Amino acid sequence: MSSSTGTGWAQLRQQARTLESQTEARFHTYSQFTSTPNLPQKPSEDEKRTESQIQELLEKRESLISQLARLLDSESALTASALKQNNLSRHREILADHRRELLRIRSSISESRDRIHLLSSVRSDINAYRSSNPEDAEAEYMLQERGRIDNSHNMIDNVISQAYAVNENFGIQRETLASINRRIVGAASQLPGIDGLMRRIGAKKRRDGIILGTFIAFCFLLLLWFR
Fold it and tell me: CA nearest 108: which of 21, 32, 53, 48?
């Protein structure tokens, strides 16, 4: 009896897990209706069929959980393990979560449908008003065009302001460089000794260059002579 009970428990649990996986797959399909563009005002056949399939899966799982509970109650206190109790509780929790998920998705689809058709209704009312009041529609169009022109002018003003700022920055940099140059020239004029020292160093370099060049030429002539 215990062996047959264990086999029945395992089979029922396997069926429950299979139905849970199928329910999650159906939820994935059902949730896609929330982002469907141009959602019809009334549920489509696909939407109603998907929701019906989820409801059917939930009912089957409820029946399986009841069978698992009866099977567990039929076992003696010694053979009924804590693991089976935990498994049964887990199946009940998942079922409750999925029932709440069904309500959540159904509410989201309804909100999306109401929002889409509210916007459509508002646009229809606006178009109808414009058709019946062409002068007001033309005035509104002119105001929109004026707004776009003003935005373009603001963009142009921003670009011109940036160009003036860049030009001003360049002018400040030129003044800074000119000031540095004036300071250098002024410092050199105030220290004539440094200027004379630099000239003497330059003259010494030129003299050393002449001597070195003469020596190299002399060595070259000697080399030609002794050949």
Answer: 32
Q: Where are the alpha helices (DSSP H) in the chain?
A: 2-31, 45-74, 82-132, 134-190, 192-226
**Distance from chain centroid for Cα 81:** 50
pTM over 0.70: no
CB 17, CB 38: distance < 8 Å:
no
- Angle of the 82-132 helix axis to the 2-31 helix axis, nearest 10: 20
Do 33 and 49 form a contact (C-beta atoms < 8 A)? Answer: no
pLDDT per residue over 135-153, tens digit each?
655 666 667 777 777 776 6
Name the token pair of 86: 């935990």
Closest C-alpha among 42, 22, 46, 45 to residue 32: 46
Q: How many residues does the chain have?
A: 227
